[in-house]
Fold this protein.
Amino acid sequence: MVGTPHVGRHPFGVAIDSRRALAVLANRNDRTVSVVDLLSATTRGTILVGRGPVGVAIHATGVAFVTLAHENAVAVIDRRSAR
């Protein structure tokens, strides 16, 4: 095992950005997504996105799309938002 990065409650969906060595995880019960560095297995940050994030997709530009099940919406986030 390389490491165990800490993310939010009930991580549900994940998308991998292999170009940037990042994973974006939807934390279903926290209203957030976590950004994880795949090389160091550490959490880079957490971004508040809305109610019920469940699915994640990442565009080649690094923009992530997160489905919000309880809002019938999609959050569009720039990965650089994580702090």
Observations:
- The chain is about 0% helix and 55% strand.
- Strands lie at 11-17, 22-27, 32-37, 42-48, 53-58, 63-68, 73-78.
